[in-house]
Amino acid sequence: MPTKEVDYQLTNFDLSGDQRRRAVVAVASAATDARDCAELLDMLGLDPSEAVPTVPAPRG
User: What value, to the nearest 5°, has the Cα angle with vertex 17 and ends 14 and 22?
Assistant: First the structure.
């Protein structure tokens, strides 16, 4: 029986900013060191700067 080739590359996968931030935090907490964290984030298409929450500017 022939095997079916499956492409596991995700494209056009929309995540909210909060989901991306939580993913970066989760990866960082599970990584063994900075290099491991950087490699994992790169594999997932995430950037460390996405972990910084956006804070609204003061009113006035």
Answer: 105
pLDDT in tens, 30-44: 999 999 999 999 999
CA dist 52 → 4, 22, 27 (Å): 41, 10, 14
Instruction: Give the Cα separation of 38 and 31 in Å (integer).
Output: 9
Q: 41 with 27: CB under 8 angstroms?
A: yes
Global confidence as pTM = 0.66
Residues 21, 30 contacting (CB under 8 angstroms): no
Domain ranges for the chain, please list them.
17-51
